[in-house]
Amino acid sequence: MPVPTAYLTSTKNVAPIFDAIQRAGVPERFTFEFLKQLGFASSSDRAIIPVLKAIGFLTDASGPTERYRRFKDPSIAKAILAQGIREGYADVFAIDTQAYQKSSQDLTGMFGRLSDKGEAVNQKMATTFKALSSLANFSAGAATTEPKVSKPEDDLPTLSSGDNDNHTVDEDRRTGVLTLRHDIHLHLPLSTDVAVYDAIFRSVKANLL
Questions:
Q1: What is the distance between the alpha carbons of residues 116 and 40, in angstroms, rounded to a whole number?
Q2: Integer Cα distance of 77 and 138 in angstroms
Q3: Three-state SS for 64?
Q4: How far apart are CA 159 and CA 172, in angstroms?
Q5: Same domain, 185 and 124
Q6: For 72-119, what is each residue's pLDDT tens digit?
Q7: What domain range includes position 179?
């Protein structure tokens, strides 16, 4: 998707605005009037609305999305914001996967390559991106390998035709005794939401242990 052209002329209220979003109720529509109710009546703060749309917090009609609602959970908020930034600024991350660590000057150059805007606008787009990134946690849930869940062999039941309940697996192999083992492999979905993994593992524990 094209790099978002929404930007803030001033980023001083970015952190307070997101903090207010987290503490306030979810509005039917996120309008400038609602923003003023949160305590941000400056015209420069109004630009946060298209920025929120760019990172998937609001619909085109300014309605709060599921991502907006999930952000209200402090335990996952930073990871949810990182997810929105990665998706909204996918073209920036295509240039450098660690773009959130780059300087404003480097980011200005990236935005210059991706947009047809002038240098002054590219600079504001870069500072907006950097301000958002400073509030996010890009390392949370970033593992790309699929976790493998298996029960240790020592904990698995063993069926044998012998009378000795103390047979080990190796002993059974040597004597030709039939041994049944079950390996459980769980393929988890990629997600930055820790709650997703917590729910899966709770279900595994409840049903298998």
A1: 30
A2: 11
A3: strand
A4: 10
A5: no
A6: 999 999 999 999 999 999 999 999 999 999 999 999 999 999 988 899
A7: 153-208
